[in-house]
Amino acid sequence: MNLVADRLDRIAPSQTITVTAKARALKAAGRDVIGLSSGEPDFDTPQNIKDAAIRAIQNGDTKYTDVAGTPALRAAVAAKFKRDSGIDYKPEEIIIATGGKQVIFNALLATINPGDEAIIPTPCWVSYPDIVSLAEGTPVFVPCGQNAGFKMTGEQLEAAITRKTKWLIINNPSNPTGAAYNAEELKKLTDVLLRHPDVWIFTDDIYEKLAYDGFTPATIVQVEPRLRDRTITMNGCSKGYAMTGWRIGFAGAPLALIKAMDKLQGQSTSNTSSISQAAAVEALNGPQESINGMVEVYKRRRDMVVELLNKAPGLRCHKPEGAFYVFPDMNGCIGKTTKGGRLISADKDFVEALLDEEGVATVHGDAFIFPGHFRISYATSDEALREACARIQRFCEGMR
Fold first, then answer.
1. pLDDT digits (tens, 9 = 90+) for 89-120
2. Distance (Å, rounded) from C-alpha 116 to C-alpha 55?
3. Are 364 and 347 in contact (CB under 8 A)?
4. E strands within 284-397?
5. Can you tell me the distance from the alpha carbon of 3 to that of 19, in angstroms, rounded to the nearest whole number?
């Protein structure tokens, strides 16, 4: 009898976490490694947020809360959605979870039946397909290339929808590309969705605050309020407020879906940390100036990284609108041999050889269902990024 359940055969370990762990192990062994694989801000959590958590501890706010979150945080999230996107959610239409990933997990597990399809534009975050598969659904991939800005068109969405389609999952801005849809671009998708009343929409807006050059990412219900009754709008504190370890994700959705997710969460993790929830109230309701400072730094890093990578032979790097990633095309290196003797047959060969020969940790494009590319996170210091790009240039120049 097998110990491990068959359902685990449908999923793989997170490849971004795997690469990050390997880079840490090499560093611990004494290797000079620059890690560009982790999707985590290098900024500290703002002081006012940390102070709110300390006050919560001192005030004894250390007990269980409602499974779906404290009334204060659910109200703060509802106010955030109204303030930032003009979407009216009642506090009871809000759920708080242990990170954005749990929101996704709960929503899909609570709604997908065997054989249901979820449309996922690619490149996509590594966990979307696996969570759909774990729920016994079928991921349907729609490739969206660099020439189209890594964005899905209305025509592509229309062609992907079948009678089995249950969900469209959209990430705006995107991990791994940083591509972001504005209101006009989303309108082309919402026009299609209005013609298909059985398709639900999951919009992952976790990188919403990180956008550059005056670009404003839009969200589905903001663009088309008639889709409100079949859309879940997900966000969180991890990226915009540098709160990854606090584990706060949240979502607004129709009450019936929130109740289903609450039921599932009640039999898994129950409530999110009461201390983290108190900190999140301050993050959402308190001063927002820290975000502007982070965005300014990220923009400078993005511009530097794109410029330097485009100087490397065999690479072509698109300048993204948001998040803190670039997703260079490395097809110009396919078929070449590195200075260390490694034949580059695919993006995984490129990434592994880059780590082994130059000590730069990135993530191969195939992990994001889009081969021929690799992901770099520029959420690290200017000095580290400059040195990493110099190593990547040297690595590409050494190929024959």
1. 999 999 999 999 999 999 999 999 999 999 99
2. 46
3. yes
4. 325-326, 360-361, 363-364, 374-377
5. 27
Nearest 5°: CA angle at 130, between 158 and 157?
Answer: 5
Torsion sign over Cα 184, 237, 106, 174: positive
- 377: alpha, beta or left, given left = phi > 0 and alpha = psi -120 to 50? beta
* Rounded distance between C-alpha atoms, residue 7 and residue 9, angstroms: 5
Residue 186, Cβ neighbours under 10 Å: how many?
24
Treating both helix axes as pointing N-terminal to C-terminal, what angle do 100-111 and 127-134 enclose, rounded to 10 degrees? Answer: 30
Phi/psi for 373 (5° steps) reads -135, 175
The span from the CA of 279 to the CA of 242, in Å, is: 12
Cis bond before residue 173 (omega within 30° of 0): yes
Q: Which phi and psi (to 5°) does residue 361 adopt?
A: -95, 120
**What DSSP line would sit under 219-246, residue for residue?**
-HHHH-GGGGGGEEEEEESTTTTT-GGG
Q: Measured at the alpha carbon of residue 302, what is the angle toward residues 300 and 294, in degrees to the nearest 5?
A: 55
**Average pLDDT along the chain:** 96
Q: How far apart are CA 31 and CA 351, in angstroms?
A: 16
Q: Are 347 and 305 in contact (CB under 8 A)?
A: no
Instruction: Give the Cα separation of 33 and 355 in Å (integer).
Output: 8
> Cβ(240)–Cβ(288) under 8 Å?
no
382 near 306, Cβ under 8 Å? Answer: no
Residue 12 predicted with pLDDT over 90: no
List the domains of the chain with CATH numbers. Answer: 6-44+290-397 (3.90.1150.10), 61-285 (3.40.640.10)
pTM, 2 dp? 0.95
Name the 3-class secondary structure at 77: helix
Question: What single-letter amino acid sits at 168?
Answer: L
